Structure formats: structure tokens, C-alpha cells
Amino acid sequence: MKQSVIQVDAFSAVPFAGNPAAVCVLERERDAKWMQAVALEMNLSETAFLVPENDGYRLRWFTPALEVDLCGHATLASAHVLFESGRLAAGAVARFHTRSGELTARRDGEWIEMDFPSEAARPVAAPDGLEAALGAKLVNVGRNRMDYLVEVGSAAEVRTLRPDIAALKRLGVRGVIVTARSDDGVHDFISRFFAPGSGVDEDPVTGSAHCCLAPYWAERLGRADMAGYQASARGGTVHVRHRPPRVLLRGQAVTVMRGELEDGA
Fold it and tell me: Which residues are annotated as catalytic?
């Protein structure tokens, strides 16, 4: 049976910006080896697989290299596909059963709001080689269950980083979030996310990283509602609301391509 594949640009209102994800809506569970092969074929930072389950969908995320525990932009893309295709009514709640527990998403006009776990980083000493790998002076360093979080001195430093990707991969974590206060008068903070440990040198816009950035900047800025800008080449804005132990992420998404996997795939 042929399966549909939809490519969505998440955390963007226009095509060819934000973070692209492929979404496969399956009628039955497929094995992890098959899903990994599809993700490698799609060659995007994430491919999401949805299978109906109970009152929602089982949702799994794969990079071209491995399955991950949490992914924001591919969840946003998945919710977008369910609402746009009519599988879910505009006023319904999208429920996803994942390796990080139940996640939900609601449509609000052109926006989708997702309810994710807060992934606060605890302060740690910088591991050997991190500062050299980033080529920037580290103001603060933290770590959560997935990533290192690094604050540097300015937004300009975040934008101009040219890290040693091979050295970052040797750190043995999913990725490294680099952040600073924004200087653009629109956003509260700026970030970039390097994830060579997951097979993605730099992710364009990373919802799960904002589950860490939200509690970090809420504490420093003294407010719960903020706007973050991920300063990759494609770029994208993520609106966050810190509501411990959860983080609400808001973004837009746009479909850019539809296709089908052949029966033999």
C-alpha cells in the first residue's frame, strides 16, 4: 500500500524558510529499520512517522542517522498535516504519544501551539574542548538530558560562530545549544543548535532546544512569555511560554511538497 509523505517547513509562514520536516502518516506500525531507511532517503533533519493510537497518534522522529527522544519542528509539522488534511478539525486537540510522554498541539488561526516538557539545564563545568570547538568565550554552561546549553557574550557572536563540528561530535551528547540575549529589538534571545551527535551538523530551527532555552531565559529576564530567534541560514522564530513543568511553543508551518512512497518501499 502506498504511503503519503508531506514535506513541511516548520516555524515559518513562507516556503523555503524555517526547518523542513517530512511527515509520513501510516495506517499501521512499521519497524524501526524501515523508518530509519525512509528518514535517510528523505535526508532532512527530521522525518516524523504517525500511526493512529487510542485517542491520538503514536509519533516517532528520525534523523538520517538515528531515532531521537524529542523534536519540536517535526511535531509542529505533524500537527500541521493533521489539521490541513482534515484528519483533525480546526478546534480539535492533536494528541501525540511519544518517547517523551504525551504531547499536545492546538490550532489558533495560522498558529499552532504545542505543549512540551520543560528541559531545564543544570549548571555544569564546561567539558574539555567545548570552548575551543565553539571558538567563543563561554559565559555560562549547562546540561540537560540531551544537550549542552552555552551562553556567549553577544548575539553577534552567536550569528558568526564557525564551530569545529567534528570536535562537537566527540562531546557525546545529542547537540550543543548556543545562545545570547537578542540585539534586534524584536526577539528576547537568539540561538543556534549544532547536533552532529545526531547526524545534523546544524539544525535550522529546533523546538526541543527551546524547551531548554525557555526556562533559562525566563529566569534571567524575569518573564514567562518570550520570542526566540534561531539564527541559522534559514532562520526561524519560536514563541515560548514557560509554565513549569511545561513549555508552550508557538509557530507557523507551510506545506511545500506532497508525494507517495511506492508499494515496494
Answer: 46
